[in-house]
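Minutes, methods subgroup
Present: GH (chair), OT, SY

1. OT presented the first of two proteins processed in the latest run. Sequence and structure tokens recorded below as shown on screen.
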Amino acid sequence: MADRHPENDDTDILVTLDLEDGSQVECEILTIFTVGEQDYIALLPQDENGEPNADGEVFLYRYFEDKDGNPSLDNIDSDEEYEIASDRFDEWLDENDFNAMED
């Protein structure tokens, strides 16, 4: 399983998510990882001060790129698929010593 972490120069890469309630939240991209044939993205929501949320909540989505390399996200619809993606993300956390983020 190849994992990709956005390469940067110590600058966090942020994306803005439009939530169902009409609000927006800035999120740091933690990693993009593959399980089977599907890519997933792990996003860490930021608080109003631009700091990681206090409870360590992470959003997981399916991740796609079109033929031009433009990214898009999709919800994970089944509990089974979410569990598989979540387990792989937990492994990534362990591999990268992000123990402080785990519940």
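2. SY then presented the second protein from the same run.
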Amino acid sequence: MVDALKLKIKTLAFGTHCVECHVDESFFDGQEQTEVRSADVDVTLQVTRKSEEAYRLEISCRGTVTIPCDRCLDDLDLPVEEDYRLNVEQTGTEFDDSNDGLLIVPSDWRELDTAPLVRDTVLLAIPMTHCHENEDDCNPDMLDMLDSHRVEAVPGDDDHWSETTGTDPRWEALKKLKEQ
């Protein structure tokens, strides 16, 4: 599976080539700490060789990933429908991925491993916060436990709050210093 994502760029014929593969949770294991518990994603990688040193990559990922719900920690299936396009230039001696949409690889590279690009494409499709859309889908035992630990007010927090202005008077004192 991962070998299919290694492109032999030096010997790639001019024109468009398509690579299709399927990734599962093992694709995400061992690379970095991710929350992916399982995955069922079809990947289509289309590479177009434009010249001796210029390529166009189009990555398309379709499927689902299972991650923990932020609220109840039970499995949450999220759809993945993500596309990513970038140009690759094979020039110089340095690797440079600092430009958005452009990847520069050393001219002596014979192979380009696109697995990190595919992995990032899938991981970036996961929203920052991920909870079951309906709270009724969450684990009721976990929700009960969370409710039992809920704190309505922090003791002593009211000491610094002004009911009349709706602000913390300490901020008002800092604003006065700034105005001086």
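Chair's summary of item 2: The chain has one domain: 2-131.
Next meeting: continue with the remaining queue.
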